[in-house]
């Protein structure tokens, strides 16, 4: 049965469809439909059964792999792990207050330490399929920004796709454990100036474009530097916001 609706189409909808399919497969594993050691249906079968694209299927399987529920075996398919573990809980960080700009800066510094290296490894190791997912996620962020919609879901999906392209599952697990709060950007949109919003959107799209292009071209150093500029730019924007807040204290 299809999980896609008529109102959801295009790259911006893929994140929601991926989550739905991953949840459906998790439930099927939990209720014994796919017992430990069994093989999941093929990519083509899942695409037909659930009415989604191959990209959505790949991303959903990637989520299950990050949760250590399944493993891909070269030339054989995807299998449910024996003695599978539960999906990881959200990483618990002490004294994080998402209403405080200083907490957001701390999270961005943590992200920088991990994601700069992830971008470089993605440039070296990404497969053609992984590169395609990164490009689609980048386009989804662009659509959200240009339509004035919240970008947190699409932005997280882009960064998770880059982490997945390292082909080291620990990078994706780390970002998935931190969760959506790793993309703390809502405060930067609370500005009534259309000019400022336009400048911000252009800047963010340019930063993402530089990261994606470097990864696509296999430029390891360029990908690291582009990710570093992007995350340090976000830190700088938050520090500016923090200074503005302190002026009114």
UniProtKB/TrEMBL annotation:
Q: Identify the keywords attached in UniProt to this record, alphabetized.
A: DNA-binding, Transcription, Transcription regulation
What InterPro entries has UniProt attached to this entry? GntR_C (IPR011711), TF_FadR/GntR_C (IPR008920), Tscrpt_reg_HTH_GntR (IPR000524), WH-like_DNA-bd_sf (IPR036388), WH_DNA-bd_sf (IPR036390)
Show where the HTH gntR-type domain sits: 15-83
GO function term, MF aspect, one? DNA binding
Instruction: Note whether Transcription occurs among the keywords.
Output: yes
Checking CDD domains in the record gives: WHTH_GntR
The organism sits in which domain of life?
Bacteria
Name the Pfam families on file: FCD, GntR
Q: What is this protein called?
A: GntR family transcriptional regulator
